[in-house]
Amino acid sequence: MRLDKYLGDTALLTRKEAAEAIRRGRVTVEGAAGPCKPNQNIDPASDVVLLDGEVLRYQTCHYLMLHKPAGFITATEGSTLTVMDLVPKVSKNLFPVGRLDKDTEGLLLITDDGSLGHRLLSPKHHVGKTYEVHTRAPLSGEDLDRLRSGVDIGEKELTLPAEAAMDGEGHLLLTLYEGRYHQVKRMLLAVGNEVVYLKRLSFGPLQLGDLTLGACRELTEEEAEALRNA
Ligand code: URA
């Protein structure tokens, strides 16, 4: 691969910026003799390339986990704050996988891996998503049973079977295997209740854990692998 293309892929430099960085001596290829050239060939698998003394890592796709706060819309652009304002610009093609409402908090996967994103959202895949739900009124055992077996949210089909249980704090933990518009809120309305706070705790094999509200991190290799196998 040409060195300027490699700099484009790893450091998001344009061809012109890459040529300029090389000309200014900001780029070094470990072990190579003489000054670098934009059109010189490097092997991304074995060559170590540094920009301003920092080793560049070649990664074809990026996988990020965001702890979305309320107040941000799930979109790649818009006139108001979007989740992308909270995400480092590691790639030009990042997009959120699925959506959380503006007032919902929690785990949002952001990637530039288009085929994985589509696969995870496909109704065929039924990736489980667990939500912590605070409701206006307490839920009865009968309400939980109804949420588990499927409720009428005004569409042709009832909701698919879900998991519903109360946590130690008296909040509902609801795991869904589909993703319809405002699904959690509409399911709670269907049992005569109302969501007052909503947070997504997990998405497939990914767990939000103790990631700080508003923070974003790269998935570990194990997490990315588990997601690809989900
Ligand atoms: N269900 C909802 O109602 N809202 C969300 O943000 C996610 C799931």
Domain count: 2
Strand content: 15-25%
Give the H and E element order: HHEEEEEEHEHEEHEEEH
- Bound molecule types: uracil
Describe, in plain words, how this protein is organized in 3D.
This protein is of the alpha+beta class and about 230 residues long. It folds into 2 domains: about 5-55, Structural Genomics Hypothetical 15.5 Kd Protein In mrcA-pckA Intergenic Region, Chain A; about 65-230, Pseudouridine synthase (2-Layer Sandwich). It is built from 6 helices and 12 strands. It has helices at about 5-10, 15-25, 115-120, 140-150, 185-190, 220-230; strands at about 25-30, 50, 55, 65-70, 95, 105-110, 130-135, 165, 170-175, 195-205, 205, 215-220. The strands form 2 sheets. Strands 4, 5, 6, 7, 8, 9, 10, 11 and 12 form a 9-stranded mixed β-sheet that branches. It has a 3-stranded antiparallel β-sheet with strand order 1-2-3. A hairpin with a 2-residue loop joins strand 2 and strand 3 (about 55). Helix 1 crosses helix 2 (about 15-25). The radius of gyration is 22 Å and the shape is elongated. The chain binds uracil. Uracil (URA) binds next to helix 5.
